[in-house]
Automatic annotation (TrEMBL):
Keyword Transmembrane: yes
Organism: Elysia marginata
Chain ranges passing through the membrane: 7-40, 46-68
Name the UniProt record assigns to this protein: ABC transmembrane type-1 domain-containing protein
Keyword terms: Membrane, Transmembrane, Transmembrane helix
Membrane recorded as keyword: yes
Length: 69
C-alpha cells in the first residue's frame, strides 16, 4: 500500500513538473515569436518609408528638371 502511494505521488510530481516546464517553454517561444514579429514589422515600415521617400525625391527632381528645361 505504501509503495502505491509513493508511486502515485512520484507520478503526480513528475506530471506537474512536466506541465510547468512545457508551459514555460511555450511562454518563452510566444515571447520570442512576438518580439521577432514586431521587429519585422518595424523594419518593413522603415523600408517602406525609405522607398516612398526615395520615390518622392526622384519624382520631384524629374519634375524640376523637366520644368526647368
Amino acid at each position: 500500500m505504501i509503495e502505491l502511494v509513493v508511486v502515485v505521488v512520484v507520478v503526480v510530481v513528475v506530471v506537474v513538473v512536466v506541465v510547468v516546464v512545457v508551459v514555460e517553454v511555450v511562454v518563452v517561444v510566444e515571447v520570442v515569436v512576438v518580439t521577432v514579429a514586431l521587429l519585422v514589422v518595424v523594419v518593413v515600415e522603415e523600408v517602406v518609408v525609405v522607398i516612398i521617400t526615395v520615390v518622392v525625391v526622384v519624382v520631384v527632381v524629374v519634375v524640376v528638371v523637366v520644368v526647368v528645361s
